[in-house]
Automatic annotation (TrEMBL):
Positions that bind Mg(2+): D27, D29, D256
Protein name: Phosphoglycolate phosphatase
GO cellular component, one term: cytoplasm
Cofactor dependency: Mg(2+)
Residue numbers annotated as active site: D27, D29
Species of origin: Acrobeloides nanus
Chain residues that bind substrate: K231
Length: 321
């Protein structure tokens, strides 16, 4: 069935698409898992296409953990053990790679980090020193009554080569001030993980702000525009192209968000499939059509990855396990 020119993909149609695709790129949250639970049928689907010798890349905008941690999560949730760190791309890895190629490891300059452990781990792996990660409150200032006029920076601005901003639950006014002041040096790189407004969670109708609002605050306060590396932006695509030889025409991006996953695919010449198991719905697709946002309209849609599995495999899955 075609839904306003967006084709519904199902188990009957999928074999033809499978023959046309060499590389499958998957979003994670809302596609492969939700919270600490695998999406029903998704491990079986990934394992199925791996058995057909397809390349699988997991491209998440979640930078809270390193690729190694995500690899262990995939294994714990029942995904094929062949799917490991080497198959995963997240903004933490792209940020670290971007700054490494900019020469930060050799310059001995440090990174002021507003972000989670995952970004710090990836920076550490490439020999890039960072600081600022974790809680930072007014209590750490010499005189908490006048800190706003006499902020004590952790490092002299000359020693800071970049400010990296992503999701962090400890973000506050102090961190905002420090980031904005370090960024007054035009030679200081400003790199952001992703601009997702919210992230999916296990409790419906509870809004969970993502990195986007934090990055917006630093942008306004500093007067600087960051290099944003996560979907739908080009640095993530270039990172993938440096690591793998992909043919965009034989590559498909599968995700649950039209403004990150689908736009990423459309902007870079990939085929696209929206799964309705996460953030966005067909109503969002209709809204994009009405507003001429072709860059966020997928070629295909499916209820979830499970809906693409052959019926013989579906019959063997115990969804109550």
């Amino acid at each position: 069935m075609a839904y306003n020119n967006v084709i519904q993909m199902n188990s009957e149609r999928f074999p033809k698409l499978l023959n046309e695709i060499d590389t499958f790129i998957f979003d994670a949250d809302g596609v492969l898992w939700l919270g600490e639970e695998a999406m029903p049928g998704s491990p079986q689907f990934i394992n199925f296409i791996l058995r057909h010798n397809k390349r699988v890349i997991v491209l998440t905008n979640n930078a809270t953990k390193s690729r190694s941690v995500y690899a262990r999560k995939l294994a714990r949730l029942g995904y094929d053990i062949a799917l490991g760190k080497k198959n995963i791309v997240n903004p933490a890895a792209v940020v670290a790679d971007t700054l490494f190629r900019a020469g930060l490891a050799e310059s001995n300059k440090k990174v002021y980090l507003i972000g989670c452990q995952g970004v710090k781990d990836e920076l550490d792996d490439l020999g890039i020193e960072s600081f600022g990660h974790g809680p930072d409150s007014i209590e750490n200032q010499p005189d908490k009554n006048v800190f706003i006029y006499d902020l004590k920076l952790d490092e002299h601005p000359d020693n800071v080569g970049a400010v990296v901003v992503g999701y962090e639950k400890h973000f506050n006014y102090i961190k905002l001030m420090k980031a904005a002041n370090y960024l007054q040096d035009e030679d200081c790189h400003f790199v952001a993980t992703n601009e997702d407004e919210t992230c999916p969670g296990p409790i419906p109708n509870i809004i969970i702000p993502d990195a986007g609002p934090i990055i917006a605050a630093v942008k306004v306060a500093s007067g600087r525009e960051p290099l944003v590396v996560g979907k739908p932006n080009t640095p993530a695509f270039e990172y993938i192209c440096r690591r793998w030889k992909i043919n965009p025409e034989r590559t498909i991006m599968i995700g649950d968000r039209t403004n990150t996953d689908i736009k990423f695919g459309k902007d870079h010449g990939l085929r696209t499939l929206l799964v309705l198991s996460g953030c966005h719905s067909l109503d969002d697709v209709i809204d994009h059509q009405q507003n001429d946002r072709d860059d966020m309209i997928p070629e295909f849609y499916a209820k979830n990855l499970c809906a693409l599995l052959p019926k013989r495999i579906l019959k063997s899955i115990n969804f109550f396990n």
